[in-house]
Amino acid sequence: MAQSIEAKGKGTPLWVSSDINGFFGLFSNSLTNFLTAIGLLAGIAMPNDIVFGRIVPAAALSIAFGNFILGVIARRMSIREGRADVTAMPYGLSVPHYFAVALGVILPTYVVTQDWMVAWATGIVWNLIQGIIMLVGAFVGPWIKEHLPRAAMLGALAGFALTFISGVPIGEMYAAPMIGMVCFIILMVGWLSHKRLPLNMPVGAFAILVGTIIAWATGYMDPANVTAAASNFGIPIPELTVGLFAVGFAQIAPFLPAAIPLGIYDFLESLNNLESAAVAGEKYPVAQSMCVPAVLTILASCIGSVFPTIIYIGHPGWKAAGARIGYSFLTGAAILLLAFTGLLEIVSAVIPLAALLPILVYIGMVIGQQAFETAAPRHFPAVILAFMPYIGSFIVGKIGSVIDSVNAALAQAGSNISVAISEIPMDGVVTVSNAILSGNGVPYLGWDRLSGGDIIIAMLIASIVIYTIDRRYMRAAVYSLVGAVLSFFGIIHAASFGINAAPEVMIGYLGMAVVLVAMNYYRKADNVPIDDEEADEKAPDDSAEAPEKAEEATA
To answer: How far apart are the C-alpha atoms of 33 and 434, rounded to whole Å?
Structure first.
């Protein structure tokens, strides 16, 4: 009480000594995500003048201003409420998205067009769409959240994380095991067993430092890259890229099935994190706070950024560490300093990507854990089912990559023969039919259908199963009908939009709806819905383990 009276009219100080703890944690997290995002673009050979000259400064501005604005919102709330202990919401790049936009949007566009400007423009428009969806979500998010089972959303997110965020990185980790495996176990020691590391360094920063030392000591890194980065040293100046919107919109259609649900994920993630802060005692204005990442993502796309930003998870942790408002301001300033002095390109040449990728493996693990911790145990089958569309998408993508590699090798050898998966024989093309693939244990046609709009499909089929488990058959039937409509227009289960785009799958959804409606009226007395309270009463008593679980959660 004394603290509140003393703070009345003053609010939380702009800086307290414990803000330094929050700064090192949030800054290392933001920098790691930024470097990983840039590393992915470098990994697909996107030109440095686009990456560091245009994308980096635009993204840095969106990160920095987000931290500044959320710090101001926290400061004003603290003055209004007369509190000296308010902690600003953390903020930064959306983790699933930088992987999706680099490997799922920019790279495929370049493969088709062989033009990096077109690929960049497509990434810009993809980012713009994310921002628009988030802006709408700032106002309709609560309604959507109410009608979409959380287990379906988190299951879809976990499936995406395990296949696309962690799937490739764990392979790369074992491709450079001396670096990747050592960094990985450091992350496990610090982030999962909560072991304090030397000099009290943040876990991510310590892992990167050790990995970098190993990489340079073993000759894994090339000094020439550092020399080249230093020779390009300069101050990037953001420029308007609105003129590229038309180019990007011409290419964006195939990526909309992924862009829309990922945008929905972004605003739901921000919403959930605001709710987490409310539980910790700080009720931020929801619409105003959620507009921050939405508007900044839109503005950043207008100057070349391809990376959406969101309100980060972890507010209770930063608050417990003593961070208040200053850590947010300092993080934004540090990101600007690195991006606008040219130092970020040098840092990228010094730090090996192999030291950063284990962080993505860890992120996939945590997102998967969150899905199971949040879902009711009876919904676990639905959560696991939500992984399947991504597995299909992963397999189809890798088969496509193999075919592209084979065709590139044939072309380089001067061959006039190419390879394609097709049911129609073509001159000069070795066609591999679905029948041949299926006969050899590769149901390519089914995987291909399952991969079309994988994120939407994951949420949809998980929702159907969740409501079926809960004996809400009519609601499950409604979601089945939604699947039929989306299939009819090619939003899911098809390569492109159209009329009657996926008729077989549409009929399948209609058949599911018929079965569910029939089950709703068959032995209707049995259809007593299962709710969480009833499930809890039937669950075994684990009260003896509660103190240990609470202690683990606090840690």
So the answer is: 40
